[in-house]
Amino acid sequence: MAGHCETIVRRKYVKVCDENGDEIIEDEKKANQNRSGRSKNSETKQSFHHSDNERSNIQLRHMVPTSLGMNFAEAFLLLNPSLVESKLRASMELQIASIANGSIDSYKVLSDNITLFRNLYYEFQLKLHRVLHLFTHEKKRNDCQTLSLMDFLKK
Questions:
Q1: What pLDDT, on a 0 to 100 scale, did the predictor assign at position 53?
Q2: Is the pLDDT of residue 96 over 70?
Q3: Is residue 8 within 8 Å of residue 69, measured between CB atoms?
Q4: Spatial CB neighbours of 106, under 8 Å, sequence gap ≥ 6
């Protein structure tokens, strides 16, 4: 999960903010970390065990989507809402649980999911021209009726 968070911050889909909503700019040492999270200088190891006193000094932070991040989410919503909704992931988790308890063959699940995602990819690729306006400097809105990201999140 930490790697995923690091990636979306590095790609500027979100910004990290403190409890007041002010953006937190990572310091130089953290900026020099490699993808595995270890410092290039290997000076010290971070500990995830904190004393009560240390916990009170931990800065609360949260991620806020950037315009780019919101546009990506909107693009996925417009192209195929199932890629944003949790139903697809939940279905795959059930399949994995069924593999674990032996009620489904893993090769069948793998084959079915490869076919599913191949088809989703082709469909996504064919419709991609419909969302290119989200990634231009002049964001043009079509007259077509679409569900906005904020309306989707309110569901």
A1: 54
A2: yes
A3: yes
A4: 99
**CA triplet 10, 30, 60: central angle to 5 degrees?**
80
**Contacts of 83-86 spanning 24+ positions with Cβ under 8 A:** 83/120, 83/124, 84/152
Tokens of 36: 């595995």
DSSP-based three-state secondary structure for 17: strand
CB 77 within 8 A of CB 149: yes
Q: What is the CA radius of gyration of the chain?
A: 21
Indicate whether 61 pLDDT > 90: no
**Residue of 41, 47, 55, 5 whose CA lies nearest to 26:** 5
Q: Chain-centre distance of CA 122, in angstroms?
A: 21
The tokens describing 38, both together, are 């270890």
* C-alpha distances out from residue 48 to 30, 45, 55, 58, Å: 16, 10, 11, 12
Domain limits of the chain? 2-65, 67-154
Q: How far apart are CA 23 and CA 9, in angstroms?
A: 12
Rounded CA-CA distance 1/19 in Å is: 21
Reported as a single tens digit per residue, the pLDDT across 4-51 is 888 889 988 899 998 888 888 875 345 445 444 544 433 333 434 445
